[in-house]
Amino acid sequence: MLVHPQFDPIAFSLGPLSVRWYGLMYLIAFVLFVVLGRLHARRRPELGWNAQMIDDLLLYGVIGVIVGGRLGEVLFFQPGYYLQHPGEILAVWKGGMSFHGGFLGVLVAMWLYGRKHGKGFWQVTDFIAPLVPTGLAAGRIGNFINGELWGRPASLELPWAMVFPWVDAAPRHPSQLYQAAGEGLLLFVILWLYAASPRPLRAVSAVFLIGYGSLRFLAEFFRTPDPGIFGTLSLGLSTAQWLCVPMVVVGLALLVLTRTAAPAPR
Questions:
Q1: pTM for this predicted structure
Q2: CB–CB of 95/226 below 8 Å?
Q3: Fewer CB atoms < 10 Å away: N or C end of the chain?
Q4: Which helix (H) or strand (E) holds 11?
Q5: 61-82 pLDDT tens trace
Q6: Rounded to 5 degrees, what angle do the CA atoms 242, 246, 252 make?
Q7: For residue range 105-159, what is the model confidence (pLDDT) as tens digits?
Q8: pLDDT (tens digit, 9 = 90+) per residue, 222-259?
Q9: Pairwise CA distance, residues 72 & 77, whole Å
Q10: How far is residue 153's CA from residue 38's CA, in Å, rounded to a whole number?
Q11: Can you give the pLDDT at residue 244?
């Protein structure tokens, strides 16, 4: 049985400026987005993306993920807490970002980007889908360092069961690391390989929706559910699991629609 290292949330300080691990993970996520975006653009030049466009995409994406992620956390998961502590709403450096809220925020940002730069919505989402999972992995590692979003109680026989001392003395699943491995690294490998060849419009976006929705749904069985606006819903599923259901349904529908479409030209 392991014990959480209880990391100092501050990675390092530069005079009066303190850099937190959580913020550093977001910085790593944004750098990976740019690096992988340029690699993806070079291996698929027919898609018509260049370095300047990727930099612009990042700016739109950063705004979308931060605004949407924070609003999602406030509205979907902890409205009672933030109603009592409104000053905490802007304290994003302390953690507390909803993927589903950030996802909606990014969708709006990508739609605005497409309108301004003459790109179709699905052209944009198909391009960015393989670039997102590594950022999700970085975010979950940030959650682990912060010691938040801990897992459900686990068997004592589980070699990697971990005690989070500020919660209780029970061994728990390190679910943040499960999510970093699943929704992050595994989903990245799937999408990176799938997007390497020409695919019908919307297909890569569909695989992202199905992959993330399914992997997050499974991960929730090992993670202590967030309180959510409805708590634990019917069938014993968490708010996050029910939010994943429409993602998978929409992804499957998109994939069916692409079966009759021709692959993008080489």
A1: 0.87
A2: no
A3: C
A4: strand 10-14
A5: 999 988 888 888 887 777 777 7
A6: 135
A7: 999 999 999 999 999 999 999 999 999 999 999 999 999 999 988 999 999 889 9
A8: 999 876 555 555 677 888 888 899 999 999 999 999 98
A9: 7
A10: 42
A11: 92
Lowest mean pLDDT among 55-64, 97-106, 111-120, 197-206: 97-106
**Binding site per annotation, positions:** 140
Instruction: Look at residue 151 and give its three-state secondary structure.
Output: strand
- CB contact at 8 A, 199 and 259: no
CA dihedral (56, 38, 29, 72) positive or negative: positive
pLDDT for 98 equals 78
Q: Considering the chain, what percentage of its residues have pLDDT values greater than 70?
A: 92
Q: Residues in the chain, how many?
A: 266
Rounded distance, CA 86 to CA 70, Å?
12
For the chain, which residues make up each domain, given as ranges?
A: 2-193
Residue matched to tokens 């994943």: 244
Which residues pair with residue 20 across a beta bridge? 10
**Among all chains, which residue has been given the structure tokens 């589980």?**
158
The identity of residue 14, as a single letter, is L
Structural contact between residues 114 and 128, judged by C-beta atoms closer than 8 angstroms? no
Which residues on adjacent β-strands are paired with residue 162?
Answer: 2, 172
Please, are residues 130 and 39 in contact by the beta-carbon 8 Å criterion?
no
Burial degree of 256 (CB within 10 A; 0-12, 13-18, 19+): exposed
Structure tokens at 50: 């260049």
